[in-house]
Specification:
The protein has 2 domains: 131 residues, Rossmann fold (3-Layer(aba) Sandwich), CATH 3.40.50; 175 residues, Rossmann fold. Helices cover 31% and strands 14% of the residues. The protein is built from 12 helices and 12 strands. The strands form 2 sheets. It has a 7-stranded parallel beta sheet, with helices on both faces. It has a 5-stranded parallel beta sheet with strand order 3-2-1-4-5, sandwiched between helices. Strand 7, helix 7 and strand 8 form a beta-alpha-beta unit. The protein is globular and about 60 Å long. It starts with 8 loop residues before the first strand and ends with a strand.
Length: 339
């Protein structure tokens, strides 16, 4: 009997945020299937280790991060060079060069010269993020399904089962809808008997408290300090509804099939929005693209009114039941947009 073949080392770079990780799940699963017998390592910020492993698409995480979504160095990679390096981080030479510095046997990247493909791989700025990376892999002969978004239900119990979760924070101010408007929506939902909890990240306690104070929420309905991923995933998976801006939690709602109302501003939901499904509503006012990392609320985001958000939320609460797992026949394609 011959010895089993040695497992190849596959290194994938996507050292961005939670939403980027979850939008990249279809591509990561394509990589996992293509290299099912090999050892797949994902380079991303260490805070996302638990989330990355929860996808079931990677064997190990290589801690890698840099300020401001820059490309991190990978010189702490140990052992022989990767057999295959895959750049899912961006389309520039910086991410390609970070992987190339490890001298992999094969490198897959948008910025890499064409290696025998019929046509050069072209970056399409308006393409949806999930479709972008699946198309990228397809050009290298690796099939990936942009609709393969779901995560298994978490084992951790939710801190607020069946509550409506309102998440007012976002990494940049340009994607933060005003606290006073969130508070109006919270009051509307509480007036019809819904329990509402307000969540925030590690640096967002003041924002959580501002919304809660304006809405008259009891202390037990404030989730301060940033939940660990297991508890955060359970909170969203078992929620009746999530209301948020264009953040990682919106992608987590998609991953768990939880009804969601997502408020878009600088970037169109056609690039980052949820799949087309009855349970997801993306609110957006068309206009020229803005800066997703800007330091003031985006003008298009501010055009979304509190009445519009409350109406969408109440409609979903009346019409849709959340599910933790996709069911046969579920439609998870496209984007539902309300403008």
């Amino acid at each position: 009997m011959s010895d089993p073949p040695e497992r190849r080392r596959v290194l994938v770079l996507r050292a961005l945020g939670l939403g980027d990780l979850l939008a990249g799940v279809p591509a990561l699963r394509g990589v996992r299937r293509a290299f099912a017998q090999d050892h797949v390592v994902l380079a991303l910020p260490p805070a996302l280790r638990e989330a990355a492993l929860a996808t079931g698409a990677v064997d190990r995480v290589l801690a890698a991060e840099a300020p401001g979504r820059a490309v991190p160095a990978l010189d702490h990679w140990t052992g022989p060079p990767p057999d295959i390096a895959i750049d899912l981080h961006g389309n520039g030479p910086e991410s390609r060069d970070a992987l190339a510095a490890l001298e992999p046997r094969r490198l897959l990247a948008y910025a890499e010269p064409d290696e025998g493909r019929v046509r050069p791989l072209v970056w399409r700025p308006e393409e949806h993020e999930r479709e972008r990376w699946c198309r990228f892999l397809g050009a290298y002969g690796i099939p990936a399904d942009p609709d393969d978004v779901r995560l298994p239900p978490p084992a951790t119990p939710s801190p607020a089962p069946r509550a409506v979760v309102v998440h007012p924070g976002a990494e940049s101010a340009s994607r933060r809808w005003p606290a006073e408007r969130y508070a109006v929506v919270v009051r509307r939902l509480r007036a019809v008997g819904r329990r509402v909890v307000v969540s925030g990240g590690p640096m967002e306690d003041a924002l959580v408290e501002d919304v809660a104070e304006r809405a008259g929420l009891p202390p037990g309905d404030l989730l301060r300090g940033g939940l660990p991923f297991g508890a955060l995933s359970a909170l969203v998976a078992q929620a009746a509804l999530l209301i948020s801006g264009d953040t990682g939690l919106a992608h987590l709602a998609v991953a768990h099939g939880t009804p969601s109302v997502t408020l878009f501003g600088p970037v169109s939901p056609r690039q980052w929005g949820p799949p087309r499904a009855e349970r997801h509503i993306a609110l957006w006012k068309p206009g020229p693209p803005g800066d997703p990392h800007g330091d003031v609320p985006d003008p298009q985001l501010l055009r979304i009114g509190d009445e519009e958000v409350a109406t969408a939320a109440l409609r979903l609460l009346q019409a849709v039941r959340p599910t933790a797992q996709p069911r046969e026949g579920d439609d998870v394609r496209g984007t539902s947009v309300r403008s």
